[in-house]
Amino acid sequence: MELNLSENIREMRKARGITQTELAQSLSVTPQSVSRWETGQAYPDVVLLPRIAKYFDVTLDELMLGLESSLTIYRKEFAEASKAVHSENTLENRKRVCDILEVLTREKPREYMVLYFTNLLVMKNEYDNVSESRLDDLREQLCEMLNQLPVGVRCVSLVNIIRNEDEDKLDIWKSFCSEGYAFTTWDDYLLQRYAWNEDTEKWSRVRQNATYQLVSKLINLLSEESRGACGNMQSCFLPNPSEYYRSCLQVINAFSKSENDLLLPLRIQIEFGLARALFMEGEKEEGFSCLERTQKYIESLWKAREGAPLLGSSPFMDTLSCEVHDDEAVICMLNVWKYDSCLEFDAVRDDPRFIKFFDYVNGLFPNTRGFVTVKDGKDIPYDESEFARLVDIANGELEKKNGTYMTQAVVFRTAKGSIYKTVISDTQADVESDLLLKEMRQSGDTHIESVVCCWEGGCVDMPSYELRQKLISLDRRNKDAAVLLQGLDRYIVKELEKLLPPKNKS
User: Fold this and answer.
1) Do the domains 375-496 and 5-67 match in fold?
2) Which helix (H) or strand (E) holds 39?
3) CB–CB of 1/70 below 8 Å?
4) What is the CATH number of domain 5-67?
5) Under CATH, domain 375-496 is a member of which superfamily?
6) Comparing C-alpha atoms, which of 211, 403, 235, 463 is closest to residue 318?
7) Which helix (H) or strand (E) holds 27?
8) Cβ 122 vs Cβ 165: under 8 Å
9) How far apart (Å, rounded) are the C-alpha atoms in residues 402 and 417?
């Protein structure tokens, strides 16, 4: 490799747009010294080389060989080594490729780290010649790098990583799955992997699961997500609510040949939503027909708790099945239970059919209330659970403030075990939450495991939609709905499960 120090110093200086005098002042040498370096009449003292490299923000190799020269040499060597692997895939040739990629990764990690990692995986699978500790170190570096990459670059990188990764390590990369881009679900990455590896059985199973997830997302888009950020509004705020729900039923029927199949929980949600929309539009009789079907579907779901799994009934999902455990049943019923207070029902509230339906639904969970409250600890039996602990902290913060009913205390517990808390008033929500997130970011403690929000009036709830979006921006691992709903939803499900009637042993 030819040294080009004189020429490199001159070209880097010119690229910066500085004079020899300015460079000399930065390095505490004379302009004459810089001039002699650039003409090759003299060389910098060896102790100056690291300072010069740091000034130009280059490595020593790049300073000595040229900004592109060293990389160009290694790239050519990589191309030659890759050709050797294709012609004769030996351990020696494969190792040569990995050694060159290791150097390139140090110089240009964003360009070469994924390639280096995947080549190591290939060498490990073919020759069992790579230590797990070496791979684990790279996994950790890749996770840090992926968090900083633009979404498009991250998606492409993930395809190559997941395609080659060990099966038991795949979950490491799941949190980096970006929605709303070329690849929208984790299943899409797995489909790429199993198609590449020609694993037909796993590919088919994942494809059917992906179909189910897409149907669920489309249902939510039509009936719920179309309301935008107004997540706490009822169906009456949709532009044409009954048309949305009718479209949902058409989607379900396109992927379902039986009313009691895998899509049964979605049927309950949509049939009940259509009933509410019809009552709002004055179509009472059709609305009661929907309520009648809703009850029939709920009865089928409750029977499924006895142990018979729900199966896919169409060629799109015929390999899928799910057992209806208590938590799945409760989660489904959260879309119906205690909705009798919704304003859509004002016109039919005294109708015996309305009373009969909600007597049945609310009778599934006796002795419960429509809102979970925690004032003075009376409504949440205190135990050592994480949720109860966070609620206790939140109520303690509220007691310190003299807020209005719009005042809320938000408490986070992070993966590192740290507790962050703040009290937000309706007029200071943006300022207070931004200060909290800034503190978390500065301490490098952004991965949230539990979150709870308590209001001055005593209600347990989730933080506002805007704050939850900020949490996702804070750390992509926070985007998982399971993380952001560990407070209210998990608590309700747990408490209602205790109230479920015992299953029929016969």
Assistant:
1) no
2) helix 31-39
3) yes
4) 1.10.260.40
5) Cytidine Deaminase, domain 2 (3.40.140.10)
6) 211
7) helix 20-27
8) no
9) 29
